[in-house]
Amino acid sequence: PPVMLVELLFQAACVSLFLSSGQGRVYPARKKPASFAVERRRVGPHVCFPGSGSGCCPGWMLSPGSGKCTLPLCSFGCGGGSCIAPNLCMCPDGEQGITCPEPLGTCGEYGCDLSCNHGGCQEVARVCPVGFSMAETANGVRCTDIDECRSAACEGTCVNTEGGFACKCGAGRELSADRRSCRDMDECQATPCQHRCENSVGSYRCSCRPGYHLHGNQHSCV
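== VWCE protein ==
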């Protein structure tokens, strides 16, 4: 019995020593994440080094309004776009990249001339749109429409438009896929006849089944 009592006392001492040493290790470790969590809530989600400088992670900075690390940085600038993430810009044309291209001037890459009349002046481009010819004048550049029908290879009729042209075909014909040549239009697809329809170049002819004759209107069957 005395031996058993000594063993019990020794085991109790070991358990007590284990618990006291375990408590000494566990509690301080739990306090640090708790205080760090409070720091993260205070300065925002992108926090890397609380207590040193702003504490924001690389690529982020404190937002002036809230004082939190929520404002992304774009090292190369975004021009007319906006910085949506570290070194990622959303550009006006919907594209994303590390930066946005500078928009061209109002007169394009060739610069401007001044066009002056009646005491007023305005900037005009030194280039003309497609379908227009450019002529230098004392007041700058003058753009005049080109009559493409002089050189256009339309099978039917050519109609000049501002900056371009359009081909048209006569009755019973329609434009092909190349928008220049003409092909016969199958009028029978519109089912103009009561019974039978026979397509022909530029026209069609109706006929009737046996036992009927064609009405005077050339479409109905009696």
